[in-house]
UniProtKB/TrEMBL annotation:
Positions of the UniProt region annotated as Disordered: 1-24
Matching InterPro entries: Huntingtin-int_K
Domain of life assignment: Eukaryota
Phylogenetic classification of the source organism: Eukaryota, Metazoa, Ecdysozoa, Arthropoda, Hexapoda
Protein name: Nascent polypeptide-associated complex subunit alpha-like UBA domain-containing protein
Length: 90
């Protein structure tokens, strides 16, 4: 049988390796937390394809609206008749 030796009230080999394993776990948790922060930031700032599609649709809608307004304005201007007498100033 192997006899356990007590140093300062703890069995031999129990204090130091446990501290090292706790440090390793804490270091791993810290690294994992940092990685989680980075991935969360990247995911929040990532431009999704749906956002791009929505932007393209909005731009297209605005252009169509502007084209319709321009056509309506031109139609109104076509209603105005100009006589040659109006153009010459006497």
């Amino acid at each position: 049988m192997v006899e356990e030796r007590n140093i300062n009230g703890t069995p031999e080999g129990e204090g130091v390796p446990q501290e090292k394993s706790q440090k390793r776990i804490a270091k791993y948790d810290s690294g994992a937390a940092d990685l989680e922060k980075v991935t969360d930031y990247a995911e929040e700032n990532e431009i999704s394809s749906q956002d791009v599609a929505n932007a393209i649709i909005a731009i297209g809608d605005r252009r169509n609206k502007e084209a319709l307004e321009k056509q309506a304005q031109e139609k109104e201007l076509m209603k105005v008749s100009i006589r040659k007498k109006m153009l010459t100033s006497s």
